[in-house]
Specification:
Distance between the termini: 34 Å
Number of helices: 7
Order of helices and strands: HHEEEHEHEHHH
Strand content: 25-35%
Radius of gyration: 18 Å
């Protein structure tokens, strides 16, 4: 992948921030709820178009790990605060087999961090079987406009800026998501020969590094199969 880092604002932050405070313009709770749903639907569309949110900068917090049979589940939050009274929280889970702990780079990085350390992450908002963003907020929707929280499929994490994701990888991710989201909604039968052929074509020219990134992305997003 190209090693040039991205300096512009991330589209996820820009998108959610444009809804900050809009709820106060709603004349009643019906209008507010419709505005909230508009934001959620638009977020799913945005994700389908970009594939992966790259180089999000935030603070890691609530780092923990628990054993589940032969695996370890690492959990943490990434808190992104682009301005006062507005904060995005990404709730991340990473599952690694216990035999692979020493070789799993994400686990080794997270294990060595202190809460509130600055990190950069790549990943995707988790989605439900209905194709909706997996909103992790509870309670008052008014609060969710200023403090949105989402389940997040973590692909890469670093204490320094991450490389820009190449156009070839983004295209392969977008193609893969079309098939995967069909499987989430309708089961394995949604994986058509046409989708398989499109994904094979999209990945045939990936470099070794790009292919490894794609494998990590697919592994991370596969958690969505078990969210509902």
């Amino acid at each position: 992948m190209h090693l040039k880092t991205r300096k512009s604002k991330n589209p996820l932050v820009e998108y959610l921030q444009q809804y900050n405070g809009k709820n106060y313009d709603a004349g009643n709770s019906i209008q507010r709820d419709e505005l909230w749903q508009e934001r959620e639907d638009g977020l799913a569309t945005l994700q389908d178009s970009v594939g992966v949110f790259n180089n999000l900068k935030g603070r890691i917090n609530d780092i923990s790990a628990r054993d589940v049979r032969d695996s370890k589940v690492v959990e943490f939050r990434v808190e992104i605060k682009p301005k006062e009274y507005f904060e995005i929280t990404l709730e991340c889970s990473h599952i690694v087999h216990k035999d692979s702990l020493e070789s799993d780079s994400l686990y080794q990085i997270v294990k060595g961090l202190s809460n509130y350390s600055t990190v950069y992450v790549d990943g995707a908002i988790a989605v439900t079987s209905k194709g909706q963003a997996a909103n992790a907020s509870w309670g008052d929707k008014d609060l969710q406009f200023s403090y949105p929280k989402y389940k997040f499929n973590i692909v890469a994490l670093s204490t320094s800026p991450l490389p820009k994701v190449s156009a070839n990888v983004r295209n392969a991710i977008v193609v893969w998501r079309r098939s995967f989201e069909g499987i989430l909604k309708n089961g394995k039968s949604a994986e058509t020969d046409e989708n398989i052929a499109a994904f094979k074509k999209a990945t045939e020219n990936l470099t070794t590094e790009e292919d490894a990134y794609m494998v990590k992305y697919v592994h991370a997003c596969s958690l969505d199969l078990y969210r509902d």
